[in-house]
Q: What sequence folds into this?
């Protein structure tokens, strides 16, 4: 796996082409998904990529609701990512159409259309170009219901936009602007991780009685392929999903980043660290309870997203979980995210929160002992012949003593505490003073 | 040209008219609905201002700017004060006839050209003096642009470049507009105008280095290919978000105005981008602030797959100028001489009269939108073919210079093979040149590195040591 990923990484910048390694498969969730349908007809899953799954959802949305409309720049011929292929032919140019090149116009128009009881499904060609429409989304769509005392609403509005890295997008074809929208009460922000998720979540977003901003991971449009049931199904909003169970640490992410995180989990698991991976799916209003329950179990939390770390949505999750789980946390909450720079072209591999950045996060592997300063080295060595509490965070008071401990020990034992029991994990120290894995 | 003259006459007339009106107003204190005296008049402005005198001057000035509009199509009534409404911004005559202004003129605004499709000079056309030297340089650069496009497009297809975008079909707008400007004029491009850089001396190596994002790229490898920029050549770096450069150009022009520079700002936009709010903001700002800026719209018929008929229902872009109080002209963008004439006149007016001018150049995007696009999905092949052959701007100009005895087949062959060779060489050099060092990812976010970035750089360097295979080998650490 690791080798495959690395070679994928190399290909990514040498050719500017993307690689299968990024594709996310959710075999484990297939059964769960189908169970979530109330009345599932005989499931007829077909292998689809993400843009085709979106396309299928749009077909269904237009088919099932004569008051649904799809529009945006270049959607008429199928859109620059092919998500709207065939829709204009099938449903006519008055329901599926090109708009003038004006994002504020697209969203403003969509709000008006939605306010008249229609389902307005607007496409913004790239999330990087959503900002001219920021005012319409933040000041208008988000407050349409509230400011009118619920006399008016534009709940039928869904704004779709491809977001995120793609290997060669540079500043303006790579950004992940979700956090801006997560600061806006009144809209929902949804990001799917795979074709099956995309179809079900998009249909829910379209049919949800609130305006939704739906970001699609463009890197996965072609790369991510999985079985997608052909029928009309919806996946619940504001419900996170544990897509991988584990006991040592909780990892939370969304969209394309989950495939990176899943690979990091696999690597960590080989080292004996059991990871629980959660797909948040809806960023606002988000499912705190699922994340909280998981962190209560594991005692650790790592959040990863492509957007710059400062002010990213990871900060919000981190703060909320510290509020709720302070006494259960065994390490500071970790964030492995994009850097605080504009999204750079040739430096993209450096900017990205890679698998190895995730799996080597010190919060994942280091044990934190708050009271180590009070202990003296001889005493520790006398009591614990093979067990030590080791914290290798240079910023903490016990760092020095722990380094000495490492030097004194051939083997280093980590202790991970939990309320009920004590689990022991064995990790090799490959070099003196350095933690090996 | 003729239209322009007619317009300027009417400007003069209405100017005289207005000045007469205002002087009457202030001398005789004979106000209309807004009161009898100048001060009373001011009070009734629907604006709040702490310094009414400044406001007065401002309003007066803007009145001058807008009043070249002919009061069409309403009957020109007499000057009877009873029959007119004195309204902030100028007098409006009354009419008892209920007439809606038509959504369009009966005839489309004609397109100014000098050369016919064969490159023959049209009878009666006024031609600005174009020396052999300038003409052959225009041709040279148009051909260079063509060869660049062919080679770089191919390089992208071979996987050597991540992205490319050609200017095919728009060589004349690119080069001839550049030729009509002075190097001091500040250019704010959209993205399909590399010809201006070429004209100003950006070398093939400099183009290639940007495309490869190597150490020699002025943009330090941070932006996608074709996002050129050169401080030295007064060419503001390309930004992908559309139309954002347009209001910025007005700000730049205003600064040139305040500094009394013999230069203007020149900004380019596609037809599609004129739908953005920024386009409209820019035109309005330029008119109100009387900024010396030339807006050049390359109306090439398409914005990716969106045809102009789905983009706007006006008669193109040219008519939008008047609505904002901006003088405008429509020009055949595939006639290099016409572009040259129109842009040099526009520039002259912008600078000497300190006002914006809008130029709509009718042209055609012969290539795909970019290497990510297949334009045969949405437009007929014959249409592309027609513009590629019959309406080819490079061939047309070549015919003209050939007829002048300034060009030959031999020179043509030499030029093309020479440029091709230079480009192959510059690609080899660019490919061998290392990428900018990783420190350049963190620099220039601000003028100096803040602590968060210092910390992130340190962390990144530790990660690189741990996982060297995760990182490209051609980026120096
Ligand atoms: C704000 C914004 N929205 C959308 C895009 C995506 N986009 C890039 S080019 C383009 C079409 C532009 O057409 P036009 O202005 O006519 O220029 P042309 O490509 O024809 O030269 C679009 C929609 C963008 N770059 N910026
Ligand atoms: Mg265009």
A:
């Amino acid at each position: 796996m690791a080798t495959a990923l690395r070679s994928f990484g190399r290909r990514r910048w040498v050719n500017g082409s993307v690689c299968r390694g990024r594709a996310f498969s959710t075999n484990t969730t297939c059964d769960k998904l189908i169970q979530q349908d109330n009345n599932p007809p005989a499931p007829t899953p077909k292998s689809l990529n993400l843009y085709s799954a979106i396309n299928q959802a749009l077909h269904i949305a237009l088919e099932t609701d004569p008051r649904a409309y799809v529009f945006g720049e270049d959607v008429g011929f199928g859109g620059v990512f092919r998500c709207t292929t065939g829709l204009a032919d099938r449903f006519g140019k008055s329901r599926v159409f090109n708009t003038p090149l004006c994002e504020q116009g697209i969203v403003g128009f969509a709000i008006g259309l939605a306010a008249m009881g229609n389902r307005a499904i607007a496409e913004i060609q790239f999330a990087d170009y959503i900002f001219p429409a920021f005012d319409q989304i933040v000041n208008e769509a988000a407050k349409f219901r509230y400011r009118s005392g619920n006399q008016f609403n534009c709940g039928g509005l869904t704004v779709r936009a491809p977001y995120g890295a793609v290997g060669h997008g540079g500043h303006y074809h790579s950004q992940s602007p979700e956090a801006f929208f997560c600061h806006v009460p009144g809209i929902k922000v949804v990001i799917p991780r795979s074709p099956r998720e995309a179809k079900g979540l998009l249909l829910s977003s379209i049919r949800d009685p609130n305006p939704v901003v739906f970001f699609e991971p463009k890197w996965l449009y072609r790369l991510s392929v999985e079985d997608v049931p052909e029928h009309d199904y919806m996946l619940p909003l504001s419900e996170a999903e544990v897509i991988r169970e584990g006991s040592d640490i909780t990892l939370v992410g969304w969209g394309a980043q989950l495939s990176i995180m899943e690979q990091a989990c696999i690597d960590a698991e080989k080292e004996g660290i059991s990871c629980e991976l959660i797909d948040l799916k809806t960023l606002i209003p988000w499912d705190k309870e699922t994340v909280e329950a998981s962190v209560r179990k594991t005692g650790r939390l790592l959040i990863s997203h492509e957007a710059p770390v400062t002010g990213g949505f990871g900060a919000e999750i981190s703060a909320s979980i510290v509020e709720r789980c302070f006494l259960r946390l065994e390490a500071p909450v970790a964030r492995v995210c994009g850097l605080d720079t504009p999204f750079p072209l040739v430096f993209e591999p450096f900017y990205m929160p890679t698998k190895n950045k995730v799996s080597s996060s010190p919060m994942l592997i280091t044990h934190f002992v708050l009271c180590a300063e009070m202990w003296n080295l001889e005493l520790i060595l006398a009591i614990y012949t093979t067990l030590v509490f080791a914290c290798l965070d240079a910023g903490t008071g016990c760092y020095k003593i722990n380094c000495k401990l490492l030097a004194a020990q051939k083997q280093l034992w980590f202790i991970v505490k939990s309320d009920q029991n004590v689990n022991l994990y064995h990790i090799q120290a490959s070099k003196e003073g350095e933690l090996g894995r | 040209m003729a239209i322009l003259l007619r317009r300027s006459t009417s400007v003069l007339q209405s100017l005289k008219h207005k000045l007469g009106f205002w002087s009457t107003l202030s001398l005789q204190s004979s106000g209309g609905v807004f009161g009898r005296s100048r001060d009373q008049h001011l009070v009734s402005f629907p604006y709040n201002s702490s310094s009414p005198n400044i406001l007065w001057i401002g309003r007066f000035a803007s009145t001058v700017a807008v009043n070249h509009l002919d009061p069409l199509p309403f009957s020109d009534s007499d000057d009877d004060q009873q029959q007119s409404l004195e309204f902030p911004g100028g007098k409006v005559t009354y009419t008892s006839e209920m007439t809606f202004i038509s959504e369009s003129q009966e005839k489309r605004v004609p397109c100014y050209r000098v050369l016919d499709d064969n490159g023959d000079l049209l009878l009666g056309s006024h031609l600005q003096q174009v020396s052999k030297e300038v003409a052959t340089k225009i041709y040279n650069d148009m051909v260079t642009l063509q060869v660049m496009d062919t080679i770089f497009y191919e390089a992208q297809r071979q996987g050597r470049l991540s992205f490319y975008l050609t200017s095919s079909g728009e060589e004349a707008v690119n080069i001839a507009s550049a030729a009509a400007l002075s190097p001091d004029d500040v250019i704010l491009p959209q993205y399909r105008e590399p010809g201006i850089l070429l004209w100003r001396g950006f070398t093939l190596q400099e183009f290639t280095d940007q495309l490869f994002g190597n150490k020699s790229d002025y943009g330090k490898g941070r932006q996608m290919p074709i996002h050129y920029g050169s401080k030295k050549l007064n060419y503001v770096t390309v930004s992908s978000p559309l139309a954002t450069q347009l209001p910025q150009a007005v700000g730049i022009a205003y600064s040139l105005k305040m500094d009394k520079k013999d230069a203007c700002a020149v900004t380019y936009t596609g037809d599609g981008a004129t739908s953005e709010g920024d386009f409209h903001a820019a035109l309005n700002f330029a008119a109100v602030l009387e900024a010396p800026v030339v807006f050049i719209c390359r109306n090439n018929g398409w914005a990716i797959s969106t045809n102009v008929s789905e983009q706007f229902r006006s008669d193109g872009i040219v008519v939008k100028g008047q609505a904002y109080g901006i003088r405008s002209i429509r020009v055949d963008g595939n006639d290099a001489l016409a572009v040259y004439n129109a842009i040099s006149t526009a520039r002259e007016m912008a600078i000497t009269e300190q006002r914006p001018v809008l130029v709509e150049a009718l042209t055609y995007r012969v290539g795909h939108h970019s290497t990510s696009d297949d334009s045969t999905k949405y437009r007929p092949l014959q249409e592309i073919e027609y513009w590629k052959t019959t309406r080819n701007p490079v061939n047309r100009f070549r015919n003209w210079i050939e007829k002048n005895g300034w060009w030959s087949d031999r020179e043509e062959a030499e030029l093309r093979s020479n440029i091709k060779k230079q480009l192959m060489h510059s690609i080899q050099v660019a490919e061998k040149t290392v990428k900018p060092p990783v420190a350049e990812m963190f620099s220039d976010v601000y003028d100096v590195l803040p602590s968060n970035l210092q910390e992130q750089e340190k962390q990144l360097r530790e990660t690189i040591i741990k996982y060297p295979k995760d990182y490209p080998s051609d980026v120096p650490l």
Remarks:
- Chain B touches chain A through 51 residues (CB under 8 Å).
- Residues 2-28 of chain B form the longest helix (27 residues).
